[in-house]
Amino acid sequence: MAEIVPCTELHPIPDGEVRLLGAVRTVTGAMTRVDVPGARVLVDCGVPQGADGRGFRLPDAASEAHALVLTHGHLDHIGSIPTLLDRGFDGPIYATAPTLEITALSLEDGLGLQGAAPREIERVLGRFRALAKPVPYDRAFDVRGATVAFREAGHLLGSASVELRRGRSRVVLSGDLGRPDSPILRDPNTEWARDVGPVDLLVMESTYGSREHAHDHARISRDLEAILRSAVQRGGHVLVPAFAVGRTQVLLWFIDDLVESGRVPRIPVAIDTPMGLAVTDTYQRFRKLYDKESLAKLARGDDPLDFTELFAVHRGKDSRRLLDHDGALVVIAGSGMCTGGRIVNHLIEGLPDPRTTVLFVGHQAEGTPGARILAAKGRGGRVQVGDREVEVRAEIAVLKGLSAHADRKELTAWMNHLPGLARVALHHGDEEAQRSFAAYAG
Ligand SMILES: [Zn+2]
Asked: How far is the CA of 303 from the centre of ligand 1 (A)?
């Protein structure tokens, strides 16, 4: 039975040590350094978000690494890369090809939101691309004598767990782990070599370490069908605030499935987020990494992320034109918690209209406009969105279960596939989730 250790920074391994430089007791800011003889490897270089990020300074131990290895392109795993580069890091940056693309898009978007000038953004992206080294899944590569490989993590297209071996040490870092049976994505890897020694240490995420998801694939599909059908009857806009990276694509998959099978009427669906469009494009170019179900759809001639009524809105002026569209229309736009982006104008226009449906598909953090709108569900009232205060007469709907993270049962099942696992260092979960998981699985 593996020993499960919550909220701890330093973990010894046979010939070295593993140090959590971020996400020790929180969900964001993942950053871990693995030291083995001859190699200091940094896995992820995230930025802590929200309240966790106040006073954050990149630890020197990060910039002293020889190489950076990325698990996936979400900002909480890659957002400190610009600072790392400014501190003089010039080692290779390894990731799967889709992760490198999504990382570049996320960095561009993140720097833009911080107000960086276009020339500055181009400079950072140029440096990043010069160091980037794409590596396919399951192909071992050498980092100063350490053998490293990416394994499917099923969280996002291109997302990976990292396996590192050197001498007597074998370490696995889960990265963010998806749920088995998620649309588009293959399930997290469960086939680990049994003839190369036991796994000394697993560094594992624990976002849902204290919870179990109640909604499976079929239930999500049924719930979305009911919400869309009733929205179409109301005849107004369906406004979906959605995160561009991962969430937008999963949602498109479910809508495509409902439309193509005739379970919901064929109404226009707008992707009104440049970032969401760019990431969807990356998904489509790496479709060979889709799961069996989506590959089968492609083979039948059905693109699982496209249908006749779907259209892309690139320009801001076309986004504003959507506001005048009369009749049923689905608009998917960022930001996911309504803090900014194109969804804001849609909400200002749509919230006072009783024909509108606002559909939440993800967690709304306390203090965000999204949380305020959610609190008005069923009782109305006025809410602040952008720089305006508007009356809520729209229907507020919530689609549950679209999480891209494994729950405690799924984490335990995944972890139990690792041969000879001795110790589990939990990270990327709040303190309560980590302690609860240690008690549950220990
Ligand atoms: Zn993630």
From this structure: 25
